[in-house]
Design a protein that fits this description.
Elements (H helix, E strand, L loop, with lengths): L1 H12 L4 E2 L10 E5 L7 H15 L8 E9 L3 E2 L4 E11 L5 E3 L5 H18 L3 H23 L4 H15 L2 H23 L4 H6 L6 H8 L23 H10 L5 H25 L6 H16 L2
Parallel strand pairs: 2-3, 3-5
Antiparallel strand pairs: 1-2, 4-5, 5-6
Helix pairs in contact: 2-3, 3-6, 4-5, 6-10, 9-11, 10-11
Bound molecules: zinc ion (ZN).
């Protein structure tokens, strides 16, 4: 995710950012900005904003976010602060320099996943070990946003940004520990929102995919199938908690909005306990096998409390 962010800030800094000229006051939790004026209809912006509102209803105190919307991009991401970068259509690099296009009807589920990261971050901020990281990330995000909007940074803001960037780097080890859980939780939010266990697979699939890329997105399915968890592919942070995904798809598949709320709270509690224990033990590295076993055991325990 870090590399994606660096790439994104590089490409987005060269694009002008303007507030979306749409009457979107009814969407309290998101403010929309576009990277290309008049290229994105208000209808499409409302569509994304209503996705954020719908998901916020699964939680008591969902976070507000800024949506930076572009027509097309090879990346979507959350900056850990308050900004989500989301295109109307994803593009994927294909063989021999060709470009593949994602299904535009699936982009709202990518947004659901990115908003899921914002929720995960906010829920985690109630823990003292994370509160400082949370406030630094927010300040960085807000400052970067102001610079993008005004397009000319002051010397003072550039200096502060550089300071914050250094402090962010000092949390890299901790962030790495959190990433696998954050990816899992963001995927759970997306599949619950869409009522479809294959949502991430559908949203990220394209015809020209390599076998390795296909196996990586297949690991984000919530349908049970046999997996060799010792395979190297499961050291990747989006794929590592594949068995936990199967467990959720089988044992915690919601039938109502109330069940979504209940299960999301239960799963977060289990993840939070896992993280607190690992932080306490300074266990920054853990095999995918152990990570899955330990988390599933903990979810099971909380389910039967
Ligand atoms: Zn993610």
């Amino acid at each position: 995710m870090k590399y994606l962010l660096i790439f994104l800030s590089f490409i987005t800094s060269s694009l002008a950012l303007t507030p979306a000229d749409c009457d979107s006051e009814s969407f309290a939790l998101s403010k929309a900005y576009v990277t290309k004026e008049n290229a994105i209809s208000c209808q499409k912006i409302y569509y994304f904003q209503s996705t954020v509102e719908d998901i916020s209803e699964f939680f008591q105190d969902a976070p507000g976010v800024r949506l930076f919307i572009s027509p097309k991009s090879s990346n979507a991401s959350f900056d850990y602060g308050e900004t989500i970068y989301i295109p109307l259509q994803m593009t994927f690099p294909g063989k021999y320099g060709s470009v593949n296009y994602g299904d535009p009807t699936q982009t709202e589920y990518i947004l659901a996943h990115e908003y899921g990261h914002a929720i995960f971050t906010k829920l985690l901020s109630r823990n003292s070990f994370y509160s400082e990281v949370y406030s630094i990330d927010k300040e960085f995000s807000n400052l970067e946003f102001e610079i993008k909007l005004n397009s000319k940074p002051t010397e003072q803001s550039e200096q502060r940004l550089a300071e914050l960037s250094e402090r962010k780097k000092s949390y890299n080890k901790l962030r790495k520990l959190l990433t696998d859980y954050s990816e899992l939780y963001a995927d759970i939010i997306a599949v619950y929102y869409s009522n479809n266990k294959e949502t991430m697979l559908n949203a990220l699939y394209f015809d020209d995919m390599s076998d390795q890329s296909y196996n990586l997105v297949l690991a984000r399915s919530f349908s049970e199938r046999s997996v060799d968890i010792t395979d190297r592919i499961y050291s990747e942070e989006h794929a590592s908690l594949v068995l936990a995904r199967h467990f959720v798809g089988t044992n915690l598949w919601p039938k109502s909005k109330e069940e979504k709320q209940k299960f999301l709270s239960l799963i977060f509690k289990a993840i939070e306990e896992e993280i607190l224990e690992r932080v306490d033990r300074e266990e920054y590295k853990l095999s995918a096998k152990k990570m899955n076993e330990s988390l599933i055991k903990r979810i099971n325990k909380i389910m039967f409390l």
